[in-house]
Write a structure and sequence with these properties.
Blueprint (H helix, E strand, L loop, with lengths): L1 E3 L10 E4 L3 E5 L5 E8 L16 H12 L3 H12 L12 E6 L7 E8 L4 E8 L2 E10 L4 E8 L5 E8 L7 E5 L4 E10 L2 E15 L2 E4 L6 E7 L1 E10 L7 H13 L4 H16 L3 E3 L10 H9 L5 H18 L25 E2 L3 H5 L1 H5 L7 H22 L9 E2 L11 H4 L4 H16 L2 H22 L1 E2 L6 E2 L3 E2 L5 E2 L5 E2 L1 E2 L3 H21 L5 H12 L19 E2 L25 H16 L6 H13 L3 H14 L15 H14 E7 L7 E6 L10 E7 L5 E7 L2 E9 L5 E4 L4 E8 L9 E2 L2 E4 L6 E9 L2
Parallel strand pairs: 28-32
Antiparallel strand pairs: 1-6, 2-3, 3-4, 4-5, 5-10, 6-7, 7-8, 8-9, 9-16, 10-15, 11-12, 12-13, 13-16, 14-15, 17-29, 18-19, 20-21, 22-25, 23-24, 23-26, 27-28, 29-30, 30-31, 31-36, 32-35, 33-36, 34-35
Helix pairs in contact: 1-2, 5-17, 6-18, 9-11, 9-12, 11-12, 11-13, 12-13, 12-14, 13-14, 16-17, 16-18, 17-18
Amino acid sequence: MLWYRQPASVWTEALPVGNGRLGAMVYGGVEEEILQLNEDSVWAGAPFEREAGGGPAELARARELFFAGKVQEGQRLMQEEFMSERLIRSYQTLGELTLATPAPAEVTGYSRSLDLASGVATTRWSAGGVNFTREVYASAVDQVLVAHYFADQPGAIEVEVSLGREALPEGGLSADAGARRIRMHGRAVNGQHAGVRFASVLELIPTGGEVLPVEGGAGALRVAGADELRLVLAARTDYRGEADPMAQAEAELELAIWNKDAAALRARAVEAHSRPFERCRLELPPGDFAALPTDERLRAFAAGGQDPTLLALYFHYGRYLLIASSRPGALPANLQGLWSEHLEAPWNADYHININLQMNYWPAEVTDLAEFPLPFFEMLDGIRRRGAVTAEKLYGAKGWVAHHTTDAWWFSVPIGRTVWGLWPVGGAWCTRHAWEHYLYTGDELFLRDRAWPAMRGAAEFFLDYLVEDPASGKLVSGPSSSPENTFITPDGQRADTSMGASMDQQVIWDLFTNLLEAAAVLGEAQDPVVKSVAAARERLLGPQIGEDGRLLEWALPYGEAEPGHRHMSHLFGLHPGRQFTRQSAPELVAAARASLEYRLAHGGGHTGWSRAWMINFWARLGEGAEVESNLRALLAKSTLPNLFDNHPPFQIDGNFGGTAGIAEALMQSHERVASDGSEPGHLIRILPALPPAWTSGRVRGLRARGGCSLEFAWIDGLPVELLADWPAREPLRLQFPDGVRVAAITDFSGNDWGQFAEGGRVELPSALGEHLVRILLAKAE
């Protein structure tokens, strides 16, 4: 529960509700309640061909320049020939729903809250001897937004209700007191970029009282003398092919309220939200400030107080936000999730695929929200189709490519400046989420029909795109940037584009490795692309370690123009990748750690999402104290009063990255291993990076690669019991922390499997079949 003693005074204090497609920010006002509205497809712009004039000949000429050391000339050529214009065509607000009431003489007993388990935002207060309650929620079942207003005395509700928007191009407002409806329609426009047409309709359903017109109020109605008031809003655009968005919204509204009383409508919405939310639960020790309102807890925590349950709340909030902003059938969660008050949002609130969109979905699979990345995979299908055109026109390559960002129209070209836009591995990074979806779910149909075409097409592109470095004989990418960062050339010039940048190489290795493993599952080992990928992977330029022991961000030891840069791109192989682990490549992990420490020492982690990424790095390094320190920094420096992440400005990726980092500290399963030639599978590490303040706790519903669902508890920092729902798609390999041993291991039929445990390690062969497994642990002697 998030709760507060006062209404929101600014947007970043309001509380979010959403059903994946339709959402609102709830201010909780008394005299004036504002619900800022969003519908996920209210986008300016439209699809069109955006490829610049360059092509394979210009690419070859630029590569010659880079290999000859003429970095500035090569970068200038790529900027002139390859980069398309960056356009302002933004995700936009749907508008505002406002409730204005007569000013009360005195307000007492005020509170507002957001129940993460139910998805209901509630405001309560007393005035004039009357107790008022207002609930707001978004129904995923009925596809409407509902505000329900109660009073404990008959006839006490007096309110003027209105819809509005800062700008309504090609639109208007109307109110019909007889039908008790307010309608609003318009178009999303930024300059010359006209986008979708949108429509919303609001029905007022009072118990008692009457609905009256408002003189001069085109988009307003007044309710007088009501006992209760229910407001039900539906909204649609023509983005998904609806010929008449208003007719579609009206039909959805009718269906939502037909033969359903208020209790039934609410129950359907709560059940649809709470069912996935309740799959995973984290319990941590109560701190000193658990009884305080959320904003006061946040300030106390930032001042150094201990409050582990605030971090559990933050973990649950990240899952809540994903459920509310990314349901099947909706668009993916964008830079602001679902919620934006702007007509021109920061960075268009688009889909940055050079980390931000991927970070949005880091907690999905591991916290048992496997269906919620489906909008991401719809986007992947879209950029794959557009990216095939870009691959052919710009690079003369087969397959498909996408660069650092896209929007609701799925463009795939490099845009803006080379420092951020010339980065052709964004699409390849997206494909790892499709592969991981298979690893968690075991859905082979999804792997064959959705993931495999995307992975194979991305690999085809890189087989054509990679080029031999004449100095090393290795295959390198480029020219491209290391996302948004710059370097100093040997002659003292500042540049951003090079050959064989470390992140490119690591993402391509990851793609190739995932493709080879997917081919083994699908029986595609003889596919010519798979054979070529196996050969090319062996020739890739690998991670380089500099003279000071740090991983190089670029293939050459350039000087760093921004040693505290927010991106840590060259550590992709540590997280979210798995190219180097503490067991497989300790020297690379040590170099990654040195890079991380250096970046932090020079001001890194100053944005919310960057700090969240560092939490995940430290978890992979097994450093619980650093996880704790960086979680504290995330909440103290980069978290807003409503617990939204602060870039600044608000950007939702840090919420999701922080949630994923907490899960990563509790359980990891990225290491793919086989013991003594046995069948391959993933090693599941329990409490690999437990923060010291979390002395005891319990977590339920974490999922590991291979499909195992886990519940475990710990006391004094050591695990004491674990329950595993094991599908036996692969061996169950568990590694517990030092200091404990397996005391007993059984299934729920009472079979003793102690022979499969040794010290703090368990390995059950998949031949045992699907089982519920219980493990008891004791301190090692």
